[in-house]
Specification:
about 25% helix; Immunoglobulin-like; 4 domains; five-stranded antiparallel sheet; single chain
């Protein structure tokens, strides 16, 4: 019995030692590739496997490859004859971006407080390889069945001529697009841009590369180039979720679809912007490009002095209506003229801007007579005829029927020598009186008088007024929102004082306005000057929970400041931007 007991104890001890040795085996962390050589149209699977559970897994950067899927994680754990087996794997599916030899660098993992690294491995990417349809993966089918294209209306426009970019997504009938989101929106540097919202996605049956496809318009934008030469239109990138058919079938024989994601890009597009010709360029040309009509009209041609009329200078048609200055009226000095009121009715279509812009002047004659509004000219470049055109308004005669006659000129404009006679009244010169007829004041004592008691009661009477005034001050102090608005308005005036002084001078005004906006952000958000990029500013404002309308207003002002360097801006536009800046700074100060 004792011998059997000893044998049993030895057996248990041996199994325990064996189990301990198995459990204390060396930690391994390896990288495995599905293949070492692959075509540029193939996919690479990368597995990072470890035999102990770890934390803080850090993958390599996968230079030369695009991550299609991953990391997906799988864990395997089992006990066989008292021995534990464990395996954990992180899996990535990659697509090569170029041909050549690439190195999949080290990945790291922390296991039991120690950091382990995988060994780097080299992969060679060759030219595309031909494979039977049956060997195509889900990603292969997605690559062949989904395309994002930027369709450009003109690749060689003139400066300030409209260019339309339409982004279309083409999908094969064999796949289903379930969702998409923009990864990178183009910034359209060196262009004045206007988005045309897509309110509804209409799917059309069409062809692409000679094959049947379905297409949908995702984005439309109209661009006006502001610089000559070769300009680049940045790509639009989308992350698209789609379902792709596989070779597997379900119980009823229907094809099984697999869900995948694909990143598609419209690619960089370049256009060559031609400068406007110098031959035949009018001296008064202000940058208008398109097809326009021009007119000068008045609300009336006959009126009395001190009455008013409206003189309207209007331009309508198709072209860069928001990017040039309207000609100014030259009126006689005898007519009092107020600053013009700018009116705009412009819509943007796929062919560009169309509508009308105008300046309306209020004119008040001072004297009786006839006053001509001289003819003025408007010049523009027509890209269809590739020639400059000049349109002139006719002369308009304003007849002031009743009112005082000008002392400088009569109705015909000749100098008048008539002088008004001065009539003497006979009492222009009189002597000062030497007997003023003064009366003496009776001597009265102040104490005990009516004035004494009034002054004594005055402080008592002022006590209710002081109480009312104190309550009023408390009410003002407790009005937090009202005080915020007052402080915000004072702050806006402080930062915009330099811009206000520069109104009328385009470059000085917009430089001062841009500095005011930047100085405000620097003071409120502690943003350094080196960080003044549009993306960072927008990010800062979002972090501060500034509402969308105020954010867009601030970014729009910065865009106008940038655009003003190479685009004409009218006094009315400058005044509108000044008012908008005051409002935006006030709103920002209340929200931040």
């Amino acid at each position: 019995m004792n011998i059997k007991r000893y044998i049993s104890l030895l057996s248990l001890l041996f199994l325990g030692i064996l189990s301990y040795a198995q459990n204390d085996e060396t930690v391994t962390f390896e990288m495995n590739l599905s293949k070492d050589v692959l075509g540029i149209n193939e996919r690479l699977r990368v597995d990072f496997t470890m035999n102990r559970d770890g934390d803080n897994f850090v993958p390599p950067d996968f230079e030369g490859f695009r991550v299609l899927m991953g990391p997906s994680q799988s864990i395997s754990s089992s006990w066989v004859n008292g021995v534990r087996s464990f395996s954990k794997t992180y899996t990535y599916t990659l697509a090569p971006t170029a041909r050549g030899k690439f190195t999949i660098k080290q990945a790291t993992i922390v296991i039991k407080g120690e950091t382990y690294k995988s060994l780097p491995k080299e992969v060679e990417v060759t030219a595309a390889v031909e494979r039977p349809d049956g060997e195509k993966t889900v990603d292969d089918v997605a690559d062949e069945s989904l395309h994002l294209v930027a369709e450009i209306s003109k690749t060689s426009p003139y400066l300030n001529e409209a260019v339309t970019v339409v982004y279309k997504l083409y999908a094969s009938p064999s796949i289903d697009v379930t969702n998409f989101r923009a990864l990178d929106n183009p910034k359209y540097n060196n262009f004045w841009s206007q988005d045309i919202p897509v309110t509804k996605y209409d799917v059309q049956n069409t062809t692409f590369d000679g094959k049947s496809y379905r297409s949908v318009i995702l984005k439309r934008v109209v661009l006006y180039p502001q610089r000559t030469g070769e300009l680049e239109i940045e790509p639009l990138s989308l992350d698209v979720s789609l379902q792709v058919p596989t070779n597997k079938r379900d119980f009823f024989g229907g094809r099984i679809f697999a869900q995948t994601n694909k990143t598609v890009s419209a690619g960089n597009r370049k256009i060559n912007v031609k400068p406007l010709p110098t031959e035949g360029k009018p001296t008064d040309f202000s940058g208008a490009v398109g097809e326009f009509q021009f007119s000068v009209t008045t609300s009336k041609t006959q009126l009395n002095a001190s009455e008013s009329l409206q003189a309207k200078v209007a331009i309508n048609g198709k072209g860069n209506l928001k990017l040039f200055e309207i000609p100014s009226l030259n009126l006689p000095s005898s007519l009092e003229v107020y600053d013009p009121e700018f009116n705009e009715s412009v819509r943007t279509t796929l062919s560009g801007m169309e509508g009308n812009v105008s300046n309306s002047y209020t004119v008040v004659p001072t004297f009786k007579g006839k006053y001509p509004i001289p003819s003025i000219a408007f010049s523009f470049f027509n890209p269809k005829t590739e020639k400059y055109q000049t349109l002139s308004s006719g002369e308009i005669m304003i007849n002031v029927l009743e009112g005082p006659t000008s002392g400088a000129a009569d109705n015909t404009g000749s100098i008048s020598n008539n002088k008004q006679r001065v009539v003497a009244t006979g009492d222009q010169f009189v002597f000062n009186k030497i007997k003023p007829n003064l009366t003496t004041i009776n001597n009265q004592y102040f104490f005990g008088s009516r004035s004494f008691f009034l002054w004594w009661l005055l402080p008592i009477l002022l006590i209710p007024l002081a109480i009312v005034f104190g309550k009023k001050r408390e009410a003002i102090a407790s009005d937090v929102e009202g005080n915020k608005i007052k402080r915000a308005n004072k702050l806006a005036k402080k930062y915009l004082s330099a811009a206000k002084k520069a109104l009328g001078s385009k470059e000085s005004f917009y430089v001062a306005l841009e500095k005011a906006l930047h100085n405000y952000l620097k003071a409120k958000l502690k943003i350094e000057t080196s960080e003044f990029s549009k993306d960072k500013i927008a990010s800062f404002l979002s972090e501060k929970n500034v509402d969308e309308a105020t954010r867009e207003g601030f970014m729009g002002l910065l865009k106008n400041c940038e655009m003003a360097r190479y685009s004409p801006f009218s006094d009315v536009q400058m005044q509108q931007d000044y008012n908008k800046a005051s409002e935006v700074i006030s709103q920002l100060d209340k929200q931040i």
